[in-house]
Every structure is written in structure tokens, then in C-alpha cells.
Amino acid sequence: MMQTPSDDNSSAPSMNVSDLLEHLRAVSPYLPGFIYQLCLTAEGKFHYTYTSPRLEKLFGLTQQQVADDANLLLKMIHPDDYQRVINESIECAETGRAWHSEFRMILRTGRVMWIEAYDTPVKRSDGSIVWTGYGNDITQRKNYETALNDSETKFRAFVENANDIIYSLSLDGVLTYVSPNWSEILGHSLSEVVGKPIEEFIHPDDVMALKNFLQQVWHSHQKHSGIEYRIKHFNGHWCWHRSNIAPLFDKQHELDSYTGIARDIAEHKLMMQRMSHMAHHDTLTGLPNRASFTQHLNQAITLSERQQQALAVLFLDLDNFKPVNDKHGHALGDLLLQQVANRIRQCLREADIVGRIGGDEFVVLLQNIHHLANARQTAEKICECLCIPYEIDGKILHVGVSIGISLHPLHGSNAMQLVRYADEAMYEAKKMPGHVQVFASPPLGVSSSKQDDFSQDAPSAKTADDQG
Fold it and tell me: Of 11, 95, 98, whose CA–CA distance to 47 is shortest?
């Protein structure tokens, strides 16, 4: 039915792809628009790794057609909008910002449809980019906006039947008109609203942003879109709204007021939060995934260099997990991994970070480490905690763990070097006798006086028996 990315580590996304697609499939039936995941390879080729079923109803294309040829959908973007959409998307990927845009699409029937789209870009280490996003048909809303320039009668007809809130403001920000559904959406009677400054209803933290937005409309004499703010409900809670605001002119063509269309975006905000979390966290354990952990680690490295503090990276690989998983099934294995993640969390300080980067592989960031011994103590604490038997579904399960340790700046100057060093150290630990080992010295063949001096804080490897 759908095309999915390769399982190869060099091109796979930073989170479990099957879990992400499962989440996308789960939420897509409840949304009026469509969900998509679009990939741009390092060679410059677009392909969709996921589209939700509503795609066919909106655009007349099946999921399989789009999976086979992304251009069938991309080339529906209006020629006057296409390059802008592509440029904006790539620019957001380069800067790490979420993307939001409105653009036209020409259907096979010739009808023009307006789409409002939002997505979150993730740039992979192999140079490819993945956008996970949501699009919705806003043609009706665009018709409302067009109606503003047609006639007062037509405008009133749209206003009275619109699902969005339509309002007018004087130049000093006083509400001179609000459509009837303000009361339905926000609970205030119209008499409590008309004649009041709009800032009385706007969250204090958002008032300045709205004032600046109105200034942009005033200076440009053109419509501006996309201001987001919190507005107070009659019951006292805050609702997220997005508004477009356009200037209105008198007979002398002087700007004399504003008109706007506002929409409740609470569901959109929640959806974007979930999508952002899904893009940066492991869906099974809720821990940061590889990309998110790397970002935290790079930030910690910058801070540690500024404060001249050391930090440590622990690479954990469970021992005997595969036999447990094979014998009792993946469902029980997943429950075991969740308990392992919880135990690791309990062994750490609030400032430390643990991530899951593979099936039974975890990484830990320890900040403000003064000696190798500090990192070893935490590693040994994790070993002891993870080796306590697990009781799941009436079964008693046993797993061990091997841990490799790297320190900044001793073993590397960037995230890639530190994780790779700790990974190599972990594999050396697995060669040691016993079921639980902590290995912290440089890999074989690597030596320096600085490393030798630092390693004197503790032995290079330690078994479970030694720890007792």
C-alpha cells in the first residue's frame, strides 16, 4: 500500500519508522485534512514515505500512486506557488524551524484548491531531509477573504454562516464588530466585546506581538497572515487562535480600520506538539531518540567548554535481551525495555539525559563530571539496578548490561566522537568475563599521557564480582 524508508542505518530516520507510521495512521482518520511524510534524498529526489487515506478524496490520487511518484502530487502545486513552497521548505530544514504556508493546488478537474500546510523538518546525517506534516483544505476560508473585497452584503452572508470568528478593529485596536459565533466559541455575549480594546481579551504575553502585527498591516497597507495568540474564554481559560488581518480603507483610500478572520487552533497546537514529540522521541519508551540525544549532547559540549566542565557519555547495551525477546515474544520484550528505561532514569540526576538509540541500546549524558570515578559510580549504579530480576506478566526475567564510558574533552571534542568512543568501549567490555562489565579506558592501541593520567582514577574494567 505505502512506500516505507529503507532499514539501512545510513538513510533511516532518527526514530523507529514503523512506530511513527503507526501513529500517523492512528490519528489520520480523525483529521479533516491529510498527513504526509515527504523525503528529499541527498541526490535531490523527492518521495513520499507516508500519506494518509484522505489524500485520495482531496486530490484524486491514491496512496500507491503518490508513493510511486511524488511528482504526481507535488506538480499539482500552482506554478506561481511551487518554487516558493520548495524554497521555504528547504530553508526551514536548514534552520531547524517548523514550516507553515498557504498555497494553491490545481486538481485534475481544473479546480483550484487552497491548502494550508504545516510540517516539521528533520535533516539527516546523510544529507537527506524528512518533512512530517499536516495539510488542510482552506478554500472556503479563502473565499471568505475574497468576499471582503466584493460587497458588504455578500460579506455579511459569509460572516453570519462562517465557522471562524470575523471581526473588525479600529486603528487604535478597539473591537467594532465581531461575528455571532464569537459567543459560541469564546462564551462572551457580543455586548461584552464590541467597544472593548482587543488586548483586554489577549494573553498579556501575546499583546505586544499582536500590536506589532497590526503595525505591519498599517505600514504595508496589505493583508498579513498567521499571527497566533491566546485569547481568554468567558470561563477563564486561554484558547489558541490564529488570525489573518487586512486593512480597510475609506472613500479617500485612507486606511481607517482593520478586519480579521480568527480560527481556533487548539487541536492544531496539540497535533504539532505530538508530531514534534514523535519526531524527537522513541515511541516505546518516551526517551529522546538518536537525533534528539545528539542535539542535547552538542549543547552540553558547548556549555561545558564555556564553563570548563567535563561531561561523560555512557553507551549501554543489554546482555541476554535477544534470548528473552525470542523466547517470550516482542510484546513482552517491549514491556521489558520500558522497565529498563524507567530504571535507568531512577539512577540519574535531574540534569542527566538518557536516550534510546537502538533496539536494546541506550546512551546517557552525565554533565558536570569532575573525575572518571564519578562516571564509573553512576555506571555501576545502573549495572546493579538493571541486573535486579524483572517480573513481567508473571514471568521472572534476567538481563545484564555492558557499559562503555567516554569523557569530554579527554576522548573527543564532538558528539559523534564521544558516542563512537563509548560504543567501542562497550564492545571491549563485552569481552570481559562476567555478565555485567563497565569499561572506561581507551580502546586497544590508543594511548597518551593525558589519557593514562586520567585513567588512574579507577581501573579500566570492572566485573559484577569486583563491584561487590
Answer: 11
- Partners of 461 in beta bridges: 439
Q: What pLDDT digit, counting tens, does each position of 152-194 carry?
A: 666 666 667 778 899 999 999 999 999 988 998 999 999 999 9
- Beta-bridged to residue 403, according to DSSP, are 316, 438
Candidates 263, 264, 269; CA nearest to 144 is 263
Looking only at the bridges linking them, the beta strands covering 255-264 and 112-123 are: unpaired
Contact 401, 319 (CB under 8 A): yes
> Cβ atoms within 10 A of the Cβ of 133, count?
21
Question: Which tens digits make up the pLDDT trace of 68-110?
Answer: 999 999 999 999 999 999 999 999 999 989 999 999 999 999 9
Q: What is the torsional sign of CA 123, 126, 132, 138?
A: positive
Strands, DSSP E only, in 215-348?
Answer: 224-232, 238-249, 255-264, 310-319
* CB-based contact 268:252 (threshold 8 Å): no
User: In whole angstroms, what is the distance from residue 36 CA to residue 31 CA?
Assistant: 12
Query: What would you measure as the largest C-alpha separation in the chain, in angstroms?
Result: 90
pLDDT greater at residue 22 or residue 171: 171
Q: Give the active site residues.
A: 360
- Distance between CA atoms of 34 and 28, rounded to whole angstroms? 7
Coil vs helix vs strand at 42 = coil
Residue 365's DSSP bridge partners are: 313, 353
